Fold:
Amino acid sequence: MTQTNLRAYAVWDGPTRWFHWINFVCVVALVVLGTAILYSKELGVTDDGKILLKTTHVWFGYVFAVNLAWRIAWAFIGNRQARWSALLPFKQGFARELIAYMRGFVRGDVRPYLGHNPLARLSVSLFFVLLIVQAVTGLVIAGTDIFYPPFGYWFANWVAAPGVDPSSIVPYDKTGIDATSWEAMRAFRSPFVTVHYWNFYVLLALIVIHIAGVIATELREGGGLVSAMFTGRKMLDQKPVDDV
Ligand code: HEM
Structure:
């Protein structure tokens, strides 16, 4: 690559960049706290410690979920590269473009994309699905476990014994709880926990693939992918395919 032909192209708008880095911080924190919850027994965490871990996880979860909801809305109103049309793999001729891109990538003569290349569209779309699943299941189990909003009061109401005020129900304390309703609520919660648990591993795998993809694309095409997520601009020495 010769320095002389390099040109800066505007790509990621401000809200998209903020979303990316807030999401990054939240996901790292949620993965670390989630892993601590998962191994709390082995780590010798007390019940109070578990409540603290779960509460902290849920607070990061709220930031993560609001940020994600905001990004979903932004995909309808943001700049060209922030929109669904630049993210989803449903455009006409996508399969052909994907095959051509992968062939070029293997040969080492790809033309760079300004926004998401066809492989990245697949990965980003899958990210959205996995993140939404994780947010929805997380919000439900936060209600069943530590009775946090948005569903906490409803679950506390479900398990409270007749005549007991649901707001007096305390996590990890069976006082005021109706045993039969508790079992029914735990059975309802179970598939949400299972999905939250397995989706976590799929998400981890996709994060590894995402990082590997960024490194490989940077090596093959250049462009300063990581710094572009800070500055909003890619530096390219060829006209990108999607610069229309
Ligand atoms: C990228 C996002 C997230 C990741 C990677 C993640 C990861 C995890 C992991 C690994 C666990 C342990 C699983 C288990 O105990 O079986 C967990 C548990 C939990 N998560 Fe998340 N989580 C995420 C988002 C959220 C959100 C948005 C919320 C709610 C606002 C949430 C609420 C919870 C709760 C309440 C538990 C405890 C479940 C239990 O009692 O076992 N999570 N999370």
Residues 178 and 227 are 55 Å apart (CA to CA).
